[in-house]
Structure formats: structure tokens, C-alpha cells
């Protein structure tokens, strides 16, 4: 740990001497990023762009606005998200916003006016400087407010600025029905809420009438149905909710099992032929799917797990002991359920409340749906996130001064918003105005660490993350104390002054305990220590304006708005990503973090280019030329051949948790091979390391259960049949079945990502594909030659009996350029030319059952599914024609190949169905545009249009 410098000591002495001395009448504001007399808009180049978004199901245009104005350095992706989500006014009317300038001005002017009106600034000039600086920071993507700010501020709508809500429910029918209503109104507005149901009597407890209580799980069922109805009533994302139950509740084991039992139901329905795909009509009979469940565990319980003892389940009204349970059995049950279906997560009650600044008002019982906001019941939190890459210097340094000033501006703006904000219920409004909870956080940590040459799972990476987080929250609370000197502390501070100061001291002590490894993290940490010393001294005199200051949210949509490579605290998802192109389509590029990392690690230009080219081709660094193996870990990602170990994620969370008012939205991914014991270890280490909450997801856990006995018998029969088919083919050898001179054929013109071409497919007279010709138009000799060679190889293989479905299985989803939008109404998006070609061939030559297993359907079939009709009747193909048309001498070989095809396709259909459902569970398709969503904390976000699965 670096020694404290004389300058740092002097700064601390000055801080103590000047504690509480704020400018009379309000805050003084200095220019940092702007130039006097020059508007921030005049410093950048602007350009006009067209935003056109299509419906992924049928290709129809579902959003179009042309001639929108954005800075030239903003990506097309960010342009599309902001235009479609945040521009206000009806499209096509004069009231519709058409420039980023209008959006930023609408928001900043509201903050400027409210700050000036409510006495936050010393002078009108200070207020104007604040507005200029805020405009500059938003324009240059240094930070972003959460989505409700962009939706509502400066419009005629209620000025809701919060994305996170916590509700309360008591053991009365009136309270439970209020919970339903309040939750529904929050869902209707596009936000989410969390609640702890532990006050509701258990199903074994008695009512005043003498009968048994319904128990919290029965009321969960009603709330889940309500959430599902509101979602299906027009929202484009699932209703986001969190349900928490204390581990000492008598119904805890039933609560633990709720979603795991429903997953059993899903598998049974699927095997019986019901539609349980994402959004399938039969999924409505599956319960508890609209909530994340978490068990709130105590230190008493966790120590009982450690020691192998039992603990008490207690009555809700009297607190009397009802029975005792083996702690390890309950803990194993939690891990087993999470292993099976990723629920429940875990929240550590005593840790949460030990860092609570307002315990004299009440305890913290619950969290928001993504688990980062933890505070009093009936409260809300507005969020904002910093783009960490904006503060990374070309030499690998971190710009502490600009970071500190940015945090000051952002915290000031967030605090001002509470003065004019509207809330969904009066209870939430009252609590939020009294405690003024804020949630500043950051995005792009993964990109920052990689660019700096640090592995995400390394002591160096964790030290830098901890230092940055400590600095962010330290500055936030110091600024909060200064604001308190100008406009007073939060209303609930007086009764909570002692515990608030105690928690501030805990944060400061945690900063002293961080070990650093280099100049960059040491410099950031020293600044953080100074901020905590200075801020706590000011707060001891002024109090603080805000009960909470920081959280780490998923930041899905706003990360894309800021053109971040990574979201929240997450590492890079993969080393290669897709970049949108003007006019449609996309191309794969290596993440920009990679070249920066190679530079920091000392590689020369030639080596850097060779490594980047290798990654572009292979998607990973294993075996990359010139790259030393000791540097492989720098490029480890959340997914891929070198994925970060589960404990790497847990340790990163533990490194930053002591410097957050709230918690961290993050899911710890485990491989499919992980055991129940592995889940137990993650949950146990989360407690030992001082986390507030933790959730896990085991790859393919949604569908990874053993097959039923009947299915096992079928599998055994299939294996035996395949072996028989292989033996038959081996005896007879492959036989080519040539097409006749005259054969039926069809020619299709196509366009994929702007690349045009023609495909002619010829079949046997009795209908069986036997030949394919591909011709590319104006695409150069190389691509044309490759497609010619592919045509010949496919045709010959088809005539030797290679089944078309094997080609479809192998070549669909293959990714390379050109890729993107097509002109085919049945295939709106293609990840490559061969992806399109084999999807088209599948639609033309494979029966519905084969294609449905592969996830390839026509527009008419998808429409039939949505309308509840039988899609199998839309398109039918007679597979018996192939056998009937075979020459006598080839019949046995064709029969054997046909048998193998049918049997193997059954296995592959099952495997593909399983993997497709697993992918849907892990990262669903966007309900807006059909793009595959990506993980963002505990949620998912769409890079195509910015939609999220429950977080703003």
C-alpha cells in the first residue's frame, strides 16, 4: 500500500479546517469542460441520419424517423436507440423531437430551472455554468441518467425520474390488495418493484376466524398472474419484480421450490407437445415466471450452515418458534433449486443492514428487481451511470480530476431531480423526499480493465475497480454533505445521524484497507481516501443531503446510448462484436479494448495487427501469434473458450461492495457441468466476502434435467437404430444418385446485408433436393468463386445421400460478412450468406416438423402460431417420395441412409430444441426487433433498439 503523501495529509488537514463551510446561499460552480461564450453544441460536428427499424417477424417497418440530427462521433446504434426510445412527441408531427440537442436541452433545462428555483446555486451564473457543464457531459457520453429521466423530464407527463422501487406488504388483505395495485401501476409505467412477503402469515398459521392462512406463496401466484397480464397488455418487456422471503419463515422451503417445480412443469408440457417457447400460448399456465425470487438469510442461519446445526422457523405475528430445521438441508435445497432453474437468489440480511444509514427509521427488507437498490420500504431511487472509458488516458492513466468533477455534477443533478420528481404512490413520494436516495454508478469497467492491460479476474484488476468505486462514492457523499450545507440535510437525517456517520466511517476504513499494485490504482485510491476524510469532516457539521448515494445497476440501455463496450460491472461478453453499417447490415469487429490492451502490454504494431487478425478469425486468443500465454488472462471474457471462473465474478463484486451504498446487479455464471456443491460454495463465499446479494445462472439449467424413463427408452432405441443404419451403409458403401437430364428447379434472387445474388435449386422429379447453384452479383471474383465451389460440393454430397437437414444444422447461424437484413419476407435477418441459403433451402425442402425443431419457420407459420392455429398445416412435404423414387439396386442403401437421417434428426431436433430454449432463457430475443439480447447485470438488454428485460 502506498504511503500517504505530504500533499494528501495537507489536504486532509485543510478538509477538517474547512468542514461545513459552504458558500452562503448555495453552491459555487467552476467550468471544467466548457469554454465561456462557446456553446457545447458548437464544438462538435453534427450530421443528419435516417432511423428505420423493421419488425423481425415480417419485415414491416415499426419505426421510422428520417433526418434526425446527431454528433458525427455517436454510433448508429446509439442514434437508433435514442431516436426510437427517448425522442418525445408523435412521429410525423411538428412536436416530435428531431435532434439530440432537443432531448438534452429538454432535460438539462428542467434541472437548471429546478436548481435555480430551490436555492442550490449561489448565483444565476453558477446555475448557468452547471447547465453548460451538464450539457457537455451528456453530449460527449461521459454519463447518462436512467431511462425514466429521458422519458419524462421536460414533458407534459408526470416527471418520474426513478427506475427502482421497493414496496411493502403487511399481514392484512387490504395491504395485500394495495400491493397488487401499486405493483401494477409501476409495471404499467415500465419500471419494476421488489417486496418482502415475510410479514404474511404462513400457511400453517391460523386466522382470527380459526381457519388456516393462505400463506405468501398463494398471494405470489395472484401477483404473478397480474404482472403477466399487464405485460401481455402492451408492454414490450416482462414485468420486472423481485419477491423476497426470510429464511426463518415457515413456508421457506415451499418458496424455495416454487420455480424449480414450475420448470418441471415446463418440461412435461414441452414433451407433451404444448407450446412453451418464449411467448408461447401454453406458457400462461406456468406460474411465478414474472419475478426473481430471493431468500433473505441471516448470520444466525449462515453460522448454523457452517456448524451443521439447526435453526428456528418462527410465527409471523408472535415470533414464537414453530419448528426447527437443519440449516444445511435448507441451504442445500436453495442451491439445488438454483442449480435447476437459477432461482432463488440470495440476500444477506445482516450485511445489508450493517451498512444501512437509516436503521433508526426501519430495517431494509427488500430490493428492487435487479438487486442493486436496497433501502426502506415504499421508496425509490433514480440512477445515473458514468462511462469509465472517458477517463482513461492514452498512457493508461486515470484522470482523477475530471472524474471527481464529473461525479460532482452528476450527484448535484440527481439530487435536484428529487425536488421536482413525481412518484407512483404518495407513500413512495413521501419516503423518497424524506431520504433522497440516489444511485450513481458506472459502466464500461470491463473495457477499462482490459484496455489497461489488467485481467478481470486478477488482484490488479480488482484493486483498480475498488479504488475507482471508492472515489466515486467518496466524492458523491462529500458533494452530498456540501449540498446539505446549502439546502439542509435529508429530513430523516436527524434521527439517524449516528448510524449514518458510523456507515461513512466504515466506507472510509474500507478504503484504507485496499492494497494497490501500481501507480494508477495507488493514485486513484489516495484521492478516494482524501475524499472520504474531507467528506466525513464536512458531513459531521452539515449532515448529508442523501441517505444513499451509489449502486451498480445493469445499465443496459444507457450503456448502449453511451457507446460502451461493456455494461455495469460486467467484463467483456466476447472479444468480437457486431457493428451496424450505414444502410443496414452489420460487420464483425474485434472489440476496441483489445488493441489498447496490446499496446499497454508492450506489443509492437506488427504483433498487434497479427493478434487482432487472429482474434477476428478465431474469436479467441488461444494460439494467437506473438501473444505470450501469461497475457491470455487479460482477454478472458464472460463467454467463450477462456471464460472467467465463477469465483472471479464473486471476487470482483467483493472488491467493490464496501464502497457502495447499495448493492450490485450481477449474475454469476456457472458452466453446465457445475454441481449443486458449486452453487453452495458460491452462495457461502458471497456471505464470507461481505456481499449484500448474489444470483447465479448455470448454463442450460432451464432444460438440463434428465429425460423421463419413457424418453430414455426412446433414446436407447434411437441409438440402436443409428448403429444399424451405419453398419448397413458401411456394407454397401455410398452410391451416387444422379439427377435426370430434365428436372424441376426454381431460381430465387436474394439480398443479404446489401450483397445480391441468385440461387437455383434442382430436385428429383419426385421431390427431393439434389443440386444447388449459387451466383453472386457484383461481389468480386473471390466471393463468386467460393460460392461456386460451395455449390458443387453441396450438390455432390446431396446426390451421395448426405441429408439436407445436416447441412442446415451445421450452416445456419454461421456468422461472417456480408450479413444483416434480407429482402426475403420469410427470413428477415441473416448472420451470413450461407445462413440465409440454408434457411431458404430448409423452408423450401424440409417438412414443418424438421424445421420447427431447427427454429426455421415461414412468416405464415409464425403468424399461425401467434393466432393459435396449427402451423403444421400451412406447409406440408411428403418425405416418402425419396424412397419410392429410388432405383431397385440402390433401395437398400437409400433405405439405410433414410433411416439414419430420420433417427439422427430426432436426436438433433431434441438437442437443438434444448439449446434453443436454453439460449432463450439465458438471453431471449428482443420483443421489439428480434435481435438476440445480451446479459446486463441481472437482466438482458438489446443492442439493436435498447429494450430491456426489466431494468432501465
Explain this structure.
This protein has three domains: 6-160 and 384-559, no CATH class; 168-354, Alpha-Beta Barrel (Anaerobic Ribonucleotide-triphosphate Reductase Large Chain), CATH 3.20.70; 709-922, no CATH class. It is built from 30 helices and 23 strands. The strands form seven sheets. Strands 3, 4, 5, 6, 7, 10, 11, 12, 15 and 16 form a ten-stranded mixed sheet that branches. The protein has a three-stranded antiparallel sheet with strand order 17-18-19. The radius of gyration is 30 Å and the shape is globular. Residues 1-26 are annotated as: Disordered. Its EC number is 1.17.4.1. Residues 162-697 form the Ribonucleotide reductase large subunit C-terminal domain. Keywords: Cobalamin, Cobalt, Disulfide bond, DNA synthesis, Nucleotide-binding, Oxidoreductase.
Helix content: 40-55%
Number of helices: 30
Gyration radius, in Å: 30 Å
Beta-strand percent range: 5-15%
Which spans of ≥5 residues are poorly predicted at pLDDT below 50?
1-23, 232-237, 703-715, 875-922
Question: How many separate structural domains?
Answer: 3
For the termini, the CA-CA separation is 38 Å
Tally of extended strands? 23
Integer average pLDDT: 84
Task: Estimate the global geometry from the Cα principal axes.
Answer: globular
Oligomer: single chain
| Major sheet characteristics | 10 strands, mixed
Overall structural class, as computed from helix and strand content, comes to: alpha/beta
Amino acid at each position: 500500500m502506498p504511503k500517504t503523501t505530504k500533499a494528501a495529509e495537507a489536504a486532509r488537514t485543510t478538509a477538517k479546517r474547512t468542514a461545513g463551510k459552504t458558500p452562503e446561499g448555495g453552491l459555487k460552480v467552476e467550468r471544467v469542460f466548457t469554454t465561456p461564450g462557446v456553446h457545447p453544441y458548437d464544438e462538435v460536428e453534427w450530421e443528419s441520419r435516417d432511423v428505420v427499424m423493421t419488425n423481425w417477424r415480417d419485415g414491416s417497418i415499426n419505426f421510422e424517423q428520417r433526418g434526425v440530427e446527431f454528433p458525427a462521433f455517436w454510433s448508429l446504434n446509439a442514434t437508433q436507440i435514442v431516436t426510437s426510445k427517448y425522442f418525445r412527441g408523435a412521429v410525423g408531427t411538428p412536436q416530435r423531437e428531431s435532434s439530440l440537442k432537443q432531448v438534452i436541452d429538454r432535460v438539462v433545462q428542467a434541472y437548471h430551472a429546478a436548481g435555480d428555483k430551490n436555492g442550490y446555486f449561489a448565483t444565476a451564473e453558477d446555475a448557468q455554468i452547471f447547465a453548460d457543464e451538464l450539457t457537455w457531459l451528456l453530449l460527449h457520453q461521459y454519463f447518462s441518467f436512467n431511462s425514466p429521466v429521458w422519458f419524462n423530464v421536460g414533458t407534459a407527463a408526470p416527471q418520474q425520474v426513478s427506475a427502482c422501487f421497493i414496496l411493502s406488504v403487511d399481514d392484512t388483505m387490504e395491504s395485500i390488495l394495495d400491493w397488487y395495485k401499486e405493483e401494477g401501476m409501476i409495471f404499467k409505467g415500465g419500471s419494476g418493484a421488489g417486496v418482502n412477503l415475510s410479514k404474511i402469515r404462513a400457511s400453517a398459521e391460523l386466522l382470527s376466524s380459526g381457519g388456516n392462512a393462505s400463506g405468501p406463496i398463494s398471494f405470489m401466484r395472484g401477483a404473478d398472474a397480474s404482472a403477466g397480464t399487464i405485460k401481455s397488455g402492451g408492454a414490450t418487456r416482462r414485468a420486472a419484480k423481485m419477491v423476497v422471503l426470510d429464511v426463518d419463515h415457515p413456508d421457506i422451503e415451499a418458496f424455495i421450490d416454487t420455480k424449480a417445480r414450475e420448470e418441471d412443469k415446463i418440461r412435461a408440457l414441452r414433451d407433451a407437445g404444448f407450446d412453451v417457447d418464449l411467448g408461447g400460448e401454453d406458457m400462461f399456465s406456468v406460474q411465478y415466471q414474472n419475478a426473481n425470487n430471493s431468500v433473505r438469510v441471516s448470520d444466525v442461519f449462515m453460522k448454523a450452515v457452517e456448524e451443521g446445526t439447526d435453526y428456528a422457523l418462527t410465527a409471523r405475528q408472535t415470533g414464537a418458534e414453530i419448528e426447527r430445521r437443519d440449516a444445511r438441508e435448507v441451504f442445500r435445497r436453495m442451491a439445488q433449486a438454483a442449480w435447476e432453474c437459477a432461482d432463488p437468489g440470495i440476500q444477506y440480511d445482516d450485511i445489508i443492514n450493517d451498512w444501512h444509514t437509516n436503521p433508526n427509521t426501519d430495517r431494509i427488507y427488500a430490493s428492487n428487481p435487479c438487486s442493486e437498490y436496497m433501502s426502506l420500504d415504499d421508496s425509490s431511487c433514480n440512477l445515473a451511470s458514468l462511462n469509465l472509458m472517458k477517463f482513461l488516458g492514452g498512457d493508461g492513466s486515470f484522470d482523477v480530476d475530471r472524474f471527481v468533477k464529473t461525479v460532482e455534477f452528476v450527484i448535484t443533478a440527481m439530487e435536484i431531480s428529487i425536488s421536482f420528481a413525481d412518484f407512483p404512490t404518495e407513500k413512495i413520494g413521501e419516503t423518497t423526499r424524506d431520504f433522497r436516495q440516489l444511485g450513481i454508478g458506472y459502466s464500461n469497467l470491463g473495457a477499462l480493465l482490459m484496455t489497461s492491460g489488467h485481467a478481470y479476474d486478477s488482484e490488479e484488476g480488482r484493486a483498480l475497480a475498488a479504488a475507482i468505486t471508492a472515489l466515486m462514492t467518496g466524492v458523491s457523499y462529500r458533494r452530498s454533505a456540501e449540498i446539505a450545507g446549502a439546502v439542509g440535510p435529508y429530513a430523516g437525517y436527524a434521527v439517524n445521524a449516528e448510524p449514518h456517520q458510523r456507515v461513512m466511517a466504515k466506507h472510509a476504513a474500507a478504503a484504507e484497507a485496499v492494497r494497490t499494485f501500481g501507480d494508477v490504482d495507488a493514485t486513484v485510491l489516495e484521492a478516494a481516501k482524501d475524499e472520504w476524510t474531507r467528506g466525513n469532516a464536512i458531513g459531521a457539521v452539515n449532515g448529508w443531503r442523501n441517505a444513499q448515494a451509489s449502486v451498480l445497476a445493469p445499465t443496459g440501455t444507457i450503456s448502449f446510448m453511451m457507446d460502451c463496450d461493456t455494461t455495469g460491472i460486467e467484463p467483456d461478453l466476447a472479444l468480437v462484436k457486431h457493428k451496424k453499417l450505414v444502410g443496414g447490415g452489420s460487420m464483425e469487429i474485434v472489440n476496441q479494448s483489445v488493441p489498447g490492451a496490446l499496446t499497454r502490454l508492450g506489443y509492437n504494431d506488427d504483433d498487434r495487427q497479427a493478434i487482432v487478425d487472429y482474434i477476428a478469425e478465431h474469436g479467441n486468443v488461444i494460439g494467437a501469434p506473438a501473444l505470450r500465454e501469461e497475457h491470455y488472462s487479460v482477454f478472458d471474457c464472460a463467454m467463450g473458450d477462456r471464460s472467467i471462473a465463477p469465483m472471479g465474478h464473486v471476487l470482483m463484486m467483493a472488491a467493490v461492495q464496501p464502497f457502495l451504498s447499495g448493492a450490485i446487479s450481477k449474475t454469476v455464471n456457472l458452466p453446465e457441468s457445475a454441481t449443486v456443491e458449486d452453487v453452495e460454495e458460491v452462495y457461502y463465499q458471497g456471505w464470507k466476502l461481505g456481499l449484500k446479494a448474489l444470483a447465479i445462472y448455470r448454463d442450460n439449467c432451464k432444460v438440463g434435467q434428465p429425460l423421463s424413463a419413457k424418453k430414455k427408452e426412446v433414446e436407447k432405441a434411437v441409438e440402436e437404430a443409428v448403429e444399424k443404419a451405419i453398419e448397413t451403409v458401411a456394407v454397401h458403401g455410398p452410391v451416387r444418385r444422379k439427377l435426370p437430364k430434365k428436372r424441376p428447379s426454381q431460381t430465387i434472387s436474394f439480398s443479404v446485408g446489401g450483397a445480391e445474388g441468385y440461387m437455383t435449386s434442382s430436385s428429383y422429379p419426385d421431390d427431393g433436393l439434389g443440386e444447388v447453384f449459387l451466383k453472386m452479383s457484383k461481389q468480386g471474383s473471390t466471393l463468386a468463386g467460393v460460392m461456386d465451389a460451395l455449390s458443387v460440393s453441396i450438390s455432390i454430397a446431396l446426390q451421395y445421400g448426405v441429408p439436407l437437414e445436416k447441412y442446415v444444422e451445421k450452416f445456419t447461424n454461421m456468422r461472417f460478412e456480408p450479413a444483416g437484413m434480407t429482402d426475403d419476407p420469410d427470413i428477415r435477418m441473416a448472420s451470413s450468406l450461407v445462413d440465409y441459403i440454408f434457411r431458404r433451402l430448409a423452408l423450401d425442402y424440409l417438412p414443418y416438423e424438421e424445421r420447427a425443431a431447427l427454429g426455421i419457420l415461414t412468416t405464415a407459420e409464425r403468424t399461425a402460431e401467434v393466432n393459435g392455429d396449427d402451423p403444421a398445416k400451412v406447409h406440408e412435404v411428403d418425405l416418402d417420395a425419396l424412397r419410392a423414387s429410388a432405383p431397385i439396386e440402390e433401395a437398400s442403401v437409400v433405405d439405410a441412409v433414410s433411416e439414419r437421417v430420420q433417427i439422427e434428426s430426432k436426436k438433433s431436433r431434441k438437442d437443438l430444441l434444448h439449446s434453443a430454449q436454453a439460449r432463450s432463457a439465458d438471453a431471449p430475443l428482443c420483443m421489439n426487433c428480434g435481435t438476440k439480447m445480451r446479459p446486463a447485470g441481472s437482466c438482458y438488454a438489446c443492442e439493436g433498439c435498447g429494450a430491456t428485460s426489466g431494468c432501465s
